[in-house]
Design brief:
single chain; 2 domains; 8-stranded mixed beta sheet; Tripeptidyl-peptidase_I; autocatalytic cleavage; hydrolase
Amino acid sequence: MGLQACLLGLFALILSGKCSYSPEPDQRRTLPPGWVSLGRADPEEELSLTFALRQQNVERLSELVQAVSDPSSPQYGKYLTLENVADLVRPSPLTLRTVQKWLLAAGARKCHSVITQDFLTCWLSIRQAELLLPGAEFHHYVGGPTETHVVRSPHPYQLPQALAPHVDFVGGLHRFPPTSSLRQRPEPQVTGTVGLHLGVTPSVIRKRYNLTSQDVGSGTSNNSQACAQFLEQYFHDSDLAQFMRLFGGNFAHQASVARVVGQQGRGRAGIEASLDVQYLMSAGANISTWVYSSPGRHEGQEPFLQWLMLLSNESALPHVHTVSYGDDEDSLSSAYIQRVNTELMKAAARGLTLLFASGDSGAGCWSVSGRHQFRPTFPASSPYVTTVGGTSFQEPFLITNEIVDYISGGGFSLNSSDYSCLPLSSTSASSWNADLHCSICRFLLFSVYSLSPGTNH
């Protein structure tokens, strides 16, 4: 056993020589507004890190996504199972062996993977993590409306050059949890603009879109839907039951969530998580509803990555998911964005529809060195999801025609050159997003709009 440990240690030393590289050189590391440092983390403190292992056959996956989504394709609607996806993208045996030996030599423990084997989450001490990832220096931070505590590194990390073909990035070092998409609505910038309908209840939404039990929620057992909750945001069964007693009297509905995937905490109910569940189960009434809970309770976790990993670990799951989550696109590294897009492709190949909130900042205009720029939200800017924005009634006291809500974001991207144009024959909303990226580039706001006071689901 001692000889084995020595050999593994020698292997790690060879890998950790002078030849190193930065997997995420363009990752923004500035402290987000509202966050403060509490100082260096204790070297013996433990944290979890997520290693995104290099996948195989990503180009083939992209081709299959287009084929199953294109009505003119013979493969239209012939979706892959999770096992099919795993067989396609699973990292090579060399990648799996190399990364596992590297982590074992560094003292990583309690490592767990997913069915597709392309993520590996391990526990290390701060001391071990800083030795494993030269340049990293872990600090405690607190911030956000709920004073969330995280451990992050304000400095870039390096990996041995020998790992370049095997690791896309390491999660849990730089990206801070985004704040809730529920924001204080600013005053309308145009005189006379009305941005809020008084009393947009489930019955108002159902009447506006002519939702009946024959159209939505017939009660068939093969219908299901899901939403995700992050960052200690929880719904409560008692709140859901009370909401349905108040607003669900005139339509058939289910009284409770069918299943919670992940860790459902016992803290106070969150406004965002509650709205997501309550309105999803009202508009999609009488449909079996799942909730994916990724609280990000461990300070090194990235909750959105945890959600993606949950999708890669469930063979049978709902085919429609709504997610109120987003990061500023320019705050993320290209390696992270590309990998998340691959994860979204994996979902699309399985026939999953992912609906993402477009955000409440409009085009996200901001000034850099005196120049005004757009600031899109990701993953709403991804071509593999359907971006959902917000509308409001022209007449705030009547159920009338809708107008685009001026705070609603759009499904555009400043990284449009990274997305190859999808054929015009595709009818998916996400494909239309990609076509618009290529043809009209940075100046078109495009969303699939739904009725809501903001752009929350």
